[in-house]
Structures are given as structure tokens and as C-alpha cells.
Design a protein that fits this description.
Number of domains: 2
Strand content: 25-35%
Protein name: N-alpha-acetyl diaminobutyric acid deacetylase DoeB
Structural class: alpha+beta
CATH class of the largest domain: Alpha Beta
CATH topology of the largest domain: Aminopeptidase
Bound molecules: zinc ion
Shape: globular
Keywords: Hydrolase, Metal-binding, Zinc
CATH superfamily of the largest domain: Zn peptidases
Largest sheet: 15 strands, mixed
CATH architecture of the largest domain: 3-Layer(aba) Sandwich
Number of helices: 6
Helix content: 10-25%
Organism: Gluconacetobacter azotocaptans
Cofactor: Zn(2+)
GO molecular function, one term: hydrolase activity, acting on ester bonds
Radius of gyration: 20 Å
Length: about 325
């Protein structure tokens, strides 16, 4: 991360400092069997109108999460420069190879974008993308909004979130942006493992960082897309980049106090959900049962809540393996 490092191999085909709407690509050279001297072309839009704050908007950090790409491709197409004060940088599908393959991680190097920061200019494809965000795009930004959902293996209640941070002033500005987003739920988030995250990279630079989990299951819904669409405009209004008042929406704040919020499977089997998302749960309550698939006559294993709260996330597919995250509990603030 020092200035003695190699330059990024990624080049933008559009300018970042000229007024107007510029549609182009981040071009990442990637020579391979089907394209000698070829490149990966990551779609990018820059909308700028004079001086002002910069918002960096990303989807597709994980390739199988869809609300972000849907609303950001749409916003890139429709946002006019005269409706902006400052700059909006839109990358609808950050880990573009993963997005094309509809997988969480990159099919090229199995890279999980959100575990790859700060990346490397001379690393894998995923590391090169992370490095470009780390050293080129994040430093330009004042406010960063990164869309996530559960992907193929998790499903979430729709929430926007920011992290509990050591700098309380930065934390307060981040939670104010989360409130502006206006999702049905807002989470004061604690990560199970924050190393390598885009979130941490932005927060360590002092940026306001808002993330979301809007749904999941490897698809989207009319409801979650509408939440995302209102949320991105609200964040831009809150930042003073797009004119007009934030469109208020009722939000329930939640805390995620720690390890006892998470339940993980310890055996493989057939997953029986015993409560659905948004349900109030009590410590000791059975949230799911795992039935053995090997034989009849065996009792299922019960997974019990370790604290009171509401169910904010659940494993989505019908089968589980040891280590799969089965349930996450949030606590109404
Ligand atoms: Zn994600």
C-alpha cells in the first residue's frame, strides 16, 4: 500500500474528473486460452457535475447477489449529470467474473472479493480488482455503498448496516447514512471475521461505509429491489449529491452482539427450518432441525437459539454440511 508498489494493471476507459455521464469499463488485462492479449471489461459509469462529494456505489462484490447489480445498472442508465452535485462512481458488478458465472467467488481464481483486500497489483484477477479499489477508487470516495444479499446459500431480512467502529464520530456518520437508506431493518454490525473485507478497507481510510443484506437465495424479489432502489437514492440525497429530501421509511434498528448470534451446523443433513425470517425467538428455542439422510429411525439434531432476538438470516438450500451458517439472530435495539 506504499507508493513504491507496482502500478495497477487496471485502466479506466472513462475519466473520473470530467463533467457529464461517462459509460465505460475498468479494463483488466487477462491473457488466456480463449483470448490472447484479452481483457476483463468491468462495467463502470462515472457521473460528475462540478465540485462536491463523491459516492462510490458497488454491487456484485459477491457474484450471486442481485439487488445491487439490478439497481446500479438501472441507476447508471438513468442518472443525469444535471441531477448530481459532485460525483457518483457506479460499478454494478465489482467481481465481474463471479457475476458472469453467477457464483459467490471468481471462477478464475476462486477469489472471494470481500476477503481479498487490500489486494495486490501483481496478484490474481480478484486481487488486482481489490487493489484497484484500495488504491484508486476508495481514495476518491467520501461515501461508499456496497450492496450485498445472501447469495445462493443464505437468506436475510432486508437490512442496511454499518459497523461498530473505534472512531465514534465516523461510526455516527455511518449509522446516519444507514438510517437514510431506509431499509425495513438497520443493523449495528459486528463481523465474525473482518480481515480482508472491502468494508474494513474503506473504514480504515475514514470513509462513511454502508453495506446491505437485502434478501438472498441467489435471486431477488420485487420487494427487495424496491428497497434497494429507494435506498441508493436516499443515500445520495443524504450525501447532498442528489437534491431533495430523504424518503422516510420505518426502520427497526438491530444489534448483533457477538458469537452467540450465530448457529452453525455440526453435521450434514436435511434442514428443517422451525421458524421463519423476522420471527421473534427466545434463548433455548429450536430454530432448526437437521435430519439424517442416511437412514430412517434416527432422531434429528436440534439447533437452539443461544439468545433472544429475531431471526435475521437463515441457510437457504435444503441440505446442510458441517460448518454451514444455519441461523443468525439480531437483537432489537
Ligand atoms: Zn455478499
Amino acid at each position: 500500500m506504499t507508493d513504491t508498489r507496482l502500478p495497477s494493471p487496471i485502466a479506466s476507459t472513462v475519466p473520473f474528473d470530467r463533467d457529464g455521464v461517462h459509460h465505460g469499463f475498468l479494463r483488466l488485462p487477462y491473457s488466456r486460452d480463449d483470448s490472447a492479449w484479452g481483457s476483463i471489461m468491468i462495467p463502470l459509469t462515472v457521473v460528475r457535475n462540478g465540485d462536491g462529494p463523491t459516492a462510490l456505489l458497488t454491487g456484485g462484490n459477491h457474484g450471486d447477489e442481485y439487488e445491487g447489480p439490478i439497481v446500479l445498472f438501472d441507476l447508471a442508465r438513468t442518472l443525469a449529470a444535471e441531477h448530481v452535485r459532485g460525483r457518483v462512481i457506479i460499478v454494478p458488478a465489482m467481481n465481474y467474473p463471479a457475476f458472469q458465472a453467477a457464483t459467490r467467488t471468481s471462477p478464475i481464481d476462486r477469489g472471494n472479493m470481500n476477503r481479498t483486500f487490500p489486494g495486490r497489483p501483481d496478484g490474481t484477477v480478484t486481487e488486482k480488482i481489490a487493489d484497484y479499489f484500495q488504491r484508486t477508487l476508495l481514495p476518491m470516495a467520501d461515501i461508499v455503498l456496497d450492496f450485498h444479499s445472501g447469495g445462493r446459500t443464505l437468506d436475510f431480512i432486508p437490512f442496511a448496516a454499518a459497523h461498530v467502529l473505534p472512531d465514534k464520530a465516523q461510526e455516527e456518520r455511518s449509522f446516519a447514512a444507514v438510517a437514510a437508506f431506509g431499509a425495513p431493518y438497520a443493523l449495528r454490525m459486528v463481523e465474525i471475521d473482518a480481515r480482508g473485507m472491502y468494508d474494513s478497507a474503506a473504514e480504515e481510510m475514514g470513509k462513511i461505509f454502508v453495506t446491505t443484506e437485502l434478501g438472498g437465495g441467489g435471486t431477488s424479489s420485487a420487494r427487495t429491489v424496491s428497497i434497494a432502489r429507494r435506498g441508493v437514492l436516499n443515500v445520495l440525497r443524504h450525501a447532498g449529491i442528489v437534491p431533495g429530501p430523504v424518503e422516510a421509511a420505518p426502520t427497526q434498528w438491530l444489534d448483533m452482539p457477538g458469537d452467540d448470534s450465530f448457529l452453525f451446523a455440526e453435521q450434514a443433513g436435511l434442514l428443517e427450518p422451525c421458524v421463519d425470517l423476522q420471527a421473534a425467538v427466545a434463548a433455548g428455542q429450536v430454530l432448526a432441525r437437521i435430519h439424517t439422510m442416511d437412514r430412517t429411525g434416527a432422531a434429528p439434531v436440534e439447533l437452539r437459539a443461544r439468545r433472544d432476538g429475531i431471526l435475521i438470516a437463515r441457510h437457504f438450500p435444503g441440505l446442510v454440511k458441517p460448518g454451514d451458517c444455519v441461523a443468525v439472530i439480531g437483537v432489537p435495539a
